[in-house]
Specification:
heterodimer, A: 177 residues, mainly alpha, 9 helices, 66% helix, B: 247 residues, alpha+beta, 6-stranded antiparallel β-sheet, 7 helices, 6 strands, 38% helix
Chain lengths: 177, 247
């Protein structure tokens, strides 16, 4: 049981790392965060319910660790603002092509989203969690997941110039952030 | 139905397949009649795949080797006994990327007399505790600090792993010996009546890595847990303890 649990966790490392990089926008901090997450996961192994999505369970631990860290740094008076617009751009050494540039632009647009919108976009659109699963990871109602997600996606569409309908469809929200 | 009846959230949920069947149908019907509505849905479908594609390279990025090694080490030392401290996690000397060694066998005679099983139900009963009688191993136990390796010549390579005291405050040392035949012995010896006595020995079979495979370490962890071993001593505490026995 423990072996299988461990193996699954190791298999999810790339996903955990991607989520971590997206949250904190720094590879170094992200790796640290992933390690903390795995330590906590092993220590609290028994609170994982078999049959549920392990990635969602780990994302929740990871996100809580990140929030703890931000809070602790704030009380200690450290600056935690890491504004690296390029942090979400993959470092796989691929040749720069037109398509790749578009990906990079989208990644920058995602990196620039407010934190609460970016994390929900990550969970639903990138990691394919359901709205309910995302709401459990984030500890917010499903309605909140949906409104943040919709705003995030419209912003990306707008940044990437793919949605001519954006302005007009805004009337439902009345304002934009 | 007019477009105004559908919020962004509803159209997005439609694009994501998150609507209930009846709402799904209502949106479907409306889309057929209203191209602008269809465009809004298309926008949400597109933004999803854009986000997915944009962050795909992050997933393909190799996990840094040291991070991966750390996690694998954590996982490798994890046993079914969740209360077990992962005492090896902090011992940098360990590198057990080895899969479980099929050749793992427990030493029954010869080197030590103690038989330990991989199950925690095995009691560390006081059975035939053989004294360490090879002078070069005694010297190494008396002097080598944990983390160091000592060449024992024909007896192989001695690797001091950690020192701790058991529930009776007896000084114990965990060590490994890589024998010339490429097998590795994992052992714990404790100080008793001015002698070192084997408390635990596992013959870890042949390994190419030179390090004991994980399965023998699980047995060891179970053993250490059962005898109430302390956390590994600090470098200073160990040095003081070894100094004391040499006097």
């Amino acid at each position: 049981m423990a072996d299988e649990f461990g193996q699954q966790m190791v298999a999810l490392l790339p996903n955990l790392r991607r989520f971590a990089i997206s949250l904190c926008r720094s590879r170094d901090i992200a790796d640290d965060l992933v390690q903390t997450t795995c330590e906590k996961a092993l220590a609290n192994h028994s609170s994982y319910k078999p049959g549920t999505r392990m990635d969602a369970w780990l994302f929740r631990i990871l996100r809580n660790s990140w929030i703890d860290r931000v809070r602790r740094n704030r009380t200690e008076g450290h600056a935690v603002e890491i504004d690296d617009a390029n942090a979400l751009i993959g470092q796989d050494g691929q040749t720069v092509t037109e398509a790749r540039l578009t990906l990079d632009e989208t990644a920058k647009s995602i990196a620039a989203l407010p934190d609460d919108q970016r994390e929900v976009l990550l969970l639903v659109c990138v990691e394919s969690l359901s709205y309910r699963e995302a709401s459990e990871v984030l500890d917010v109602p499903i309605g909140t997941v949906m409104s943040r997600l919709a705003r995030a996606r419209k912003k990306i569409s707008e940044d990437m110039g793919i949605d001519a309908e954006v302005k007009r469809s805004n009337d439902k929200e009345g304002f934009r952030t | 139905m007019t477009e105004r009846d559908f919020s962004d959230e509803t159209l997005m949920a439609f694009a994501d397949g998150e609507l209930s069947a009846d709402k799904q149908k209502a949106v479907e019907e409306a889309i057929e009649k209203d191209e602008r509505l269809a465009n809004r849905v298309a926008g949400f479908i597109e933004s999803r795949s854009m986000a997915q594609n944009a962050l795909k390279p992050l997933l393909d990025e190799p996990v840094p080797a040291d991070l991966k090694a750390k996690i694998e080490e954590m996982v490798g030392t994890e046993t079914n006994v969740t209360a077990l401290p992962r005492r090896h996690a902090s011992t940098p000397v360990r590198r057990w990327a080895m899969p479980l060694a099929a050749s793992l066998a427990l030493v029954v005679g010869g080197l030590g007399g103690y038989l330990a099983g991989t199950s925690t139900t095995d009691q560390p009963a006081q059975v035939a505790l053989d004294a360490v009688n090879q002078p070069e191993i005694i010297t190494a136990l008396n002097t080598a600090s944990s983390g160091s390796e000592t060449d024992l010549g024909a007896s192989g390579l001695f690797r001091a792993i950690a020192s701790y005291s058991d529930a009776n405050n007896t000084l114990c040392r965990e060590f490994e010996i890589d024998r010339v035949d490429r097998s590795t012995i994992v052992a714990v010896a404790c100080r008793s009546d001015a002698d070192w006595k084997y408390r635990f020995t596992v013959f870890a079979g042949q390994s190419n890595s030179g390090y004991a495979p994980a399965s023998s370490l699980e047995a060891l962890d179970a053993y250490l847990n059962a005898v109430g071993a302390s956390e590994p001593m600090s470098v200073e505490a160990e040095a003081a303890a070894l100094e004391a026995i040499r006097q």
